[in-house]
Write a structure and sequence with these properties.
The complex is a heterodimer of chains A (305) and B (311). Chain A is α/β, with parallel strands linked by helices and 305 residues long. Helices cover 35% and strands 24% of the residues of chain A. Chain A folds into 2 domains: 2-239, P-loop containing nucleotide triphosphate hydrolases (Rossmann fold), CATH 3.40.50; 240-305, no CATH class. Chain A has 11 helices and 12 strands. In chain A, the strands form 2 sheets. An 8-stranded mixed beta sheet of chain A has the order 6-7-8-3-9-10-12-11, sandwiched between helices. In chain A, strands 2-1-4-5 form a 4-stranded antiparallel beta sheet. In chain A, strand 9 (218-223) and strand 10 form a beta hairpin. In chain A, helix 4 packs parallel to helix 6 (151-164). Chain A is globular, with a radius of gyration of 21 Å. Chain A starts with a strand and ends with a strand. Chain B has a domain at 4-77 and 207-302: Rossmann fold. In chain B, 32% of the residues lie in helices and 23% in strands. Chain B has 12 helices and 12 strands. An 8-stranded mixed beta sheet of chain B has the order 6-7-8-3-9-10-12-11, with helices on both faces. A 4-stranded antiparallel beta sheet of chain B has the order 2-1-4-5, with helices on one face. The mean pLDDT of chain B is 92. The chains are: A alpha/beta (305), B alpha/beta (311). Chain A binds chain B through residues 43-44, 150-153, 180-186, 188-189, 207-211, 213-214, 247-248, 251-252, 257, 259-260, 263, and chain B through 41-43, 155, 184-187, 189-190, 193, 209, 211, 249-250, 253-256, 259-262, 265-266.
């Protein structure tokens, strides 16, 4: 469904005379199969949201290829891209800022239909009611404004609007991070249900390993702009190889955890994780590791394996 | 005498749509040196409860009940008396450090302000104290970092700076309102560890919806729902053997415990359900629950639960 091949994204900052570059995404490759959910986990600033935006080409990659259903998205012109857009949707972190505060819920959900055109008002109305039901809202919510709804309800609206475009592929960027646990549980269950009903392919971005375990078929672990480990979710949780993945897992479960004190990425040469890695050796500081295949669908970026 | 003793606290806000009943008869006490966790979902009234203690609620709030701090009723104090307690003996660590820090002042000068407000130190000594405080909360090269601005600090470091500021007056009671909100797992762990460390000799009300952090820091945990305390118990007891159906549902909805949601939504604080506030979502609700308010029932180990099942 989606194949990402060696994408990079550098952001520039600084003045006219001296430009600084920040590499947000560094040579990242992965693929997502049709009907699969890939979880992308990492801490804030690791570049996971940037990957999500790149995949949908909401921002332009510095280099690399993104193939969506056989089409190289990075090469498309604006017009062609616009045609493809409805098939790829994104759900953002903060539902309150994803919705127009002056637009009624029903109008927000109807907007994708209106943009497509060719549907009568009655049909649009019916579709909207169907979607409202699908995401577990009640019909009276249609006439409300976002401020009259809770965060969890608004995130359902955002989901309904994403589904209105009839997408094949959805990027969900921390869709539940601002929500309460019981609301989060409702929404994640809903997303799983919708995913299997509509045969969606999902890229699920989060920093919560427990959530990713529940939501994804495969997991990619990101750190410092790089993917450090990819594998089948259940397998990876039991057989993590990369020290960073292990550290994350240990923090999630153990009472007594190792708390790393140094989280500075080293920019030039060497492994991105080496300054924080308890097993770092000389080679880790000098030579960049390459992705190694160590089993069925399990890849690790580490000198030690 | 408890260090802090809240009894029958009611906070209401009159609005155009009706009266918003945010806390409905809250009884809580914190012993000297105890860390009490207050967990609940958004809108359960936990932040308002924290704000009520330091008397920082907006002027239109209607407050009833008593809040005794070392035996003195805070609600009966005038503003000048309150000012001698707030920020000195009781300090609050607010959520979202980015909004709590002044972006145009250096971190050091903001902490220095807190230091000098509560002590007679001269400028030189206050500056030294600032560096000591920053070191205490684990900021390296503290003297240099003190000269930096909030935007040069990461989220976790800003939270540390907030904690340093809270410690400036050496308070005996800290009210921490979601200090770990929005932080990454790793950073959250570090901040939690730090809070645990610096509150060893202090009392604390730790307000959060993150049960993991509360479990690590708190001696006891109170569960709040729709402005009421539904259950209060020692941390171990609460986690291993929750009594109230809401506490059970809350625990079950955690990703690590199966992600089973509680059906329905929290009630509107304007139009609260009759009887037990949780009964419309409770799978064990009886007729009685709809009709009458359940009383707080005493159980073994000093546990208390507000549910007819245990009557």
């Amino acid at each position: 469904m989606l194949e990402v091949h060696r994408i990079n994204k550098r952001f520039s900052s600084g003045g006219i005379f001296k430009k600084n570059y920040i590499t947000a995404v560094d040579d990242v490759s992965f693929s997502i199969n049709r009907g699969e959910t890939l979880g992308l986990v990492g801490e804030s600033g690791c570049g996971k949201t940037t990957v999500g935006k790149l995949v949908l080409r909401l921002i332009e990659p510095t280099s690399g290829k993104i193939i969506f259903d056989g089409v190289d998205v990075t090469k498309l012109r604006k017009k062609e891209l616009r045609k493809l857009r409805p098939r790829m949707q994104m759900i953002f972190q903060d539902p309150d800022s994803s919705l127009d505060p002056r637009m009624k819920i029903g109008d927000s959900i109807a907007e994708p239909f209106r943009l497509r055109g060719g549907l009568s008002r009655r049909v649009v109305g019916e579709r909207v009611s169907d979607l409202v039901e699908t995401v577990g809202l009640s019909p009276e919510h249609v006439n409300r404004y976002p401020y009259q709804m809770s965060g969890g309800q608004n995130q359902r609206v955002v989901l309904a609007r994403a589904l209105a475009a009839n997408p094949d592929f959805v990027v969900a960027d921390e869709p539940t991070s601002g929500l309460d646990v019981s609301v989060q549980a409702q929404l994640l269950n809903l997303m799983n249900g919708v995913k299997s009903d509509l045969a969606l392919t999902i890229m699920f971005i989060t920093h919560d390993l427990e959530v990713v375990r529940y939501m994804s078929d495969r997991v990619a672990v990101m750190y410092g702009g790089k993917i450090l480990e990819v594998g089948d979710t259940e397998y990876l949780f039991d057989h993590a190889e990369h020290p960073y993945t292990r550290e994350l897992l240990a923090q999630q479960s153990a009472e007594d955890y190792y708390v790393p004190e140094d989280d500075v990425n080293n920019g030039d040469g060497g492994c991105v994780f080496c300054s924080r890695c308890p097993f770092a050796e000389e080679v880790c500081k000098n030579k960049e590791p390459v992705m190694v295949n160590i089993g069925r669908d399990h890849q690790v970026l580490c000198h030690r394996v | 005498m408890s260090h802090l003793e809240i009894s029958n606290l009611r906070v209401r806000f009159p609005t155009d749509d009706g009266v918003v009943r945010v806390t409905n008869g809250v009884d809580l006490d914190i012993e000297e040196g105890e860390n009490l966790g207050l967990i609940g979902e958004s809108g359960s009234g936990k932040t308002v409860l924290g704000m009520a203690i330091v008397r920082l609620l907006p002027g239109d709030a209607k407050i009833e009940g008593t809040i005794r701090f070392n035996g003195r009723d805070l609600l009966s104090l005038n503003e000048a008396e309150m000012r001698s307690i707030r920020g000195r003996e009781i300090v609050m660590i607010l959520q979202n450090p980015t909004n709590s820090l002044n972006p145009v002042l250096t971190i050091g000068s903001q902490i220095e302000e807190a230091v000098r407000l509560h002590s007679e130190l001269d400028k030189e000594r206050a500056k030294k104290k600032v560096v000591e405080l920053l070191e205490e909360v684990g900021i390296r090269s503290a003297a240099r970092r003190a000269k930096e601005y909030p935007h040069q600090f990461s989220g976790g470091m800003k939270e540390r700076a907030m904690i340093a500021m809270a410690l400036a007056s050496d308070p005996s009671l800290i009210i921490a309102d979601e200090p770990t909100k929005g932080l990454d797992v790793t950073i959250k762990r570090r901040v939690v560890k730090l809070i645990k460390e610096v509150t060893k000799t202090k009392s604390m009300l730790f307000i959060t919806h993150d049960l993991g952090s509360a479990a690590e820091i708190c001696d006891r945990i109170a569960v709040m729902y729709a402005g009421e305390i539904l259950e209060i118990a020692g941390t171990e007891d609460l986690l291993n053997d929750p009594l109230h159906p809401y506490t059970k549902g809350f625990l079950d909805s955690l990703p690590s415990r199966g992600l089973k949601p509680i059906p329905g939504m929290g009630p509107s604080l304007i139009d609260l359900p009759s009887g037990c506030k949780f009964h419309p979502r409770c799978d064990r609700a009886m007729k009685l629950c709809k009709r009458e308010d359940p009383p707080m029932i005493q159980k073994e180990n000093g546990r208390r639960v507000r549910c007819f099942q245990y009557a």
